[in-house]
Structures are given as structure tokens and as C-alpha cells.
Amino acid sequence: MNSSNIYFLPSGEVEAFNVVVEIPYGSQNKYEIDAETGALFLDRVIYGAAFYPINYGFIPSTKAADGDAVDVAIFMTNPVPPMTVVKCRAIGLFKKTDAGDQDNVVFAVPISDPRFDEIKDIADMPSHKIKDVVDFWKNMQKFKKGEWKQLTEVEGVFGAEEAKKEVAAYLNNYKGE
Question: Of 138, 129, 137, 135, nearest to 109 (Cα)?
């Protein structure tokens, strides 16, 4: 398998799905994996004091309502290098609209980190962690391409059951174009 096949890794299952990390916790760099070549491109750099408060990636072999793979925010102890695959469990769903497009994000924890064994639902997470992530997305779009207008509308944060429905709706539904 060459690196361009990263999008075609199996999604996994609702209770244990794969996430390809694009952006590590603490980064101000926004990376995008190119579907054709598998290369990791720097899309832009967030300026100001903002940084990614989570490891951010996608579930491979999925295509969500916005036409992209299912987005996932992974709560972890440490940053994870881009292109790392992390087996995760859904704990919540962040419903948002970016510039008019539905762009939900699944909140997840790694299955392989015992620090998160007791985290089964978003309600089990410290509330400030959730506020950090929601605030990040509400404000990140303000810094995109020098635009200073609110582009992200937040519908809300929902629990594990809603997140599992989101994951189940798209698992292994993308086979390429």
C-alpha cells in the first residue's frame, strides 16, 4: 500500500474506528492530506495565539454530508504526528456549520490509552476541555485568509449515542471516485 491509499484504509467499526491524524495537538499548522498523492500539504498557518487543542483527523473510507471524510477531534495526552492511525471510540458529536455547510466533528478518545478507559461520553470529560475545542472552532474561521467575520455557527455538543449514529452513517461508504 502506498501513502496515497491512506484514504482507503478500512474505517473500522462503530465501537472502534480508525482515525488518520492530520494535525497534532498544539499545532498552528493546518495540514491537508492530498487524496491523489498521499502527500501531506501545509494548507495554512493560524496566526495569533490560537492552536489546535486536540489531535485532529478523519475516519478513512468515509464521505460525510460535506463531501469530505468524517472529521474527528481526538482528546489525548500528547500530540500525535501527522499520518498516524489511532483506533478510537466516539464520546460525543460537535454539530456546526462552516460558511453555510454542515461540518460535524466526532469527539473521540483513543482506545489504546488507559487514561481514557473511563471516558464513555462527552459528559465524562472536564467541561473546560469541551469549551476549549468549541471556542477554537468558533474563532478559527475568523483567522482564515484574513477574514474577520464569524463563519462558524454552533448547533451544539451532543453525547456518545449521537456520535455513534454519525459514525455508523458513514463507515466504509467511500470507495473512491
Answer: 129
